[in-house]
Amino acid sequence: MEQLSTPDSSCPPAPLCRWTDKFERQAKLSPSRTAVISGNESVTYAELSSRSNQIANLLRSQGIGRGNFVGLGLHRSLELPAALLGILKSGAAYVPLDPGYPAARIEQMISSADLKYVVTNSDLATQFPNVRTICMDDEAVSSASTDGLDQGMEKDDLIYAIFTSGSTGQPKAASVYHRGFENLLRWYSIELDMGPSDRTLIISSPSFDLTQKNFFAPLITGGTLILDDCQTYDISRISALIRELGVTLINCTPSAFYPLVDAAANEDYIALASLRFAVLGGEPISISRLRPWLEHPNCRAEVMNSYGPTECTDICAFHRLHRGNLDDHPFVPLGREIPNVQVSIVDEAMVPLPDGEIGELCISGAGIGGGYLNDAARTAEAFTGSIYRTGDLAKRLPSGILEFRGRADHQVKVNGFRIELGEIEIALNHHQEVREAVVIASNNRLIAYVHGTAETADLHRFLIARLPSYMIPGEIYFLENFPLTPNGKVDRLALAATLKTGTTGIESGASTESKVLALWSEILDRPVDDATANFFDLGGNSIHLAIIHIRLMEMIGRKFPITELFALPSARSIADFLSPKGANTATASAQDRARQAQAGFSRFRRPTSR
């Protein structure tokens, strides 16, 4: 067999189309159209154009332009797209820095990317040390020129760098070229037929790779960008945004989308009726979790499985899933490549494998990024010339469809046998009563975590018929929800660290405090018996809290805002709040948090009617 080759260099790349220019075209065509909605306020295309020009001119006055990187230190808010567009209009590239990250990690990221400037707000400025901050709510911005300027960017310039976790414990910033992002956006906006009637909701972090295309795609096609300005994952709130604002497109991880589907089931999925597309990525999709919704008469949406690493401009392959093709495969395929991107399945020697054989998935073509900022050694490990080695295992079916087969780094050795954990997970997910499955190895044994209604004995029989005996998990635990990372993916490390020692349920006769502790134990997948312990210190995150919020409201038969729970860190304080006396007590700290989440951008807002 021939060695894997690089793309044909004789094929000229498409000319660079500056996406900020496309946005400006929309601003001139429809200056009064709503561009961005966040909370109860909005900005028009003309206002967004003017505000982003002020940021660009201020950056240029500081000597920032092509070849520079600027930190973007903002939550989801009206300020965010203006800052992002302003950085790009200056000719620089942006580096998202999540203000919610620990101080040590932010400092590490700033140092790693060698940042000199961060665009942020005055109330967040202290979180970004050792850099000069440009605050969106500062007079220097509001007094800057609103004139447009010549950006002068080229296709080989970098547009952004996204930090990903590193196996060494050091975050690494994967950089992306304008040419790759242009190719992605052209395909994305055409494939989803995006236009002025579309409303795209962003609930993911600005620091997540899948978020980036969704900042631009609505604004270059005349649509409306909707930013959930609440920094907590609130199922009720997100469902209300989709329903009240007529959201047509949402992009997130499967694990972040499933709870929205589950919550909508009680009202015949009316809350999701406006959706045209749910673009899911970052982890495998469970057909059984989505089937009831996709087959319901009130669903007019398709699900797109979008696959690709940060290092290759987010998406390299996709598959559209709808009620007409749910049973074409017993899994959700990775699908086919997007235009101008090539995928090859290779063996350990980087030799291409024939269709049907499992190997490492490698990517080449337009989406290949520029490697890791200021880290030549790790770039050389992941990139072989102009080819990126994903570490994912896959095979190509005779039809040309790509099938995901797990992670190469999920290969373990148990009792002397080399085992691909992904192969066991795929087998479990083929069971009709399994909605999701994750397998880990611990202390020389295999442990499966399952969300579904299957019986343990039935799953064992099912696996025995399909896998060798050494690949059958000795323990199977049933969870209602999996622990998630901040980006919404299943947190395997959390599963390994909190092995379940028994089933914990809420007993009807138990005290409220005991019920809360039992609920925490169930959601966190670990025994919790300290009524004074802090929920977040125990490993809880915002998605866990959103699920607990729904369960608590069901338990007590009344509604309350999720912000209350952030002021109630212990099971005891929650139990007190849930009591009849506590129900009438306002929690000031929760209200303060809510006010802070809405603060800023006062001169750049207007009320929005829903």
Short summary:
By secondary structure, this protein is an alpha/beta fold. Helices cover about 30% and strands about 20% of the residues. Among the domains are: about 15-175, Rossmann fold (3-Layer(aba) Sandwich); about 415-495, ANL, C-terminal domain (GMP Synthetase, Chain A, domain 3); about 510-600, Non-ribosomal Peptide Synthetase Peptidyl Carrier Protein, Chain A.
CATH topology heading of the domain at 17-176: Rossmann fold
Contiguous runs where pLDDT drops below 50 for at least 5 residues: 1-17, 500-509, 583-610
Supply the number of helical segments.
19
Beta fraction: 15-25%
Distance between the termini: 61 Å
Structural class: alpha/beta
Strand order of the largest sheet: 2-1-10-9-11-12-13-14-15
CATH architecture term of the domain at 17-176: 3-Layer(aba) Sandwich
Round the Cα radius of gyration to an integer and report it: 24 Å
Shape: globular
Helix content: 25-40%
CATH class descriptor name of the domain at 17-176: Alpha Beta
Give the beta-strand count: 26
Characterize the biggest β-sheet: 9 strands, mixed
Overall average pLDDT: 84
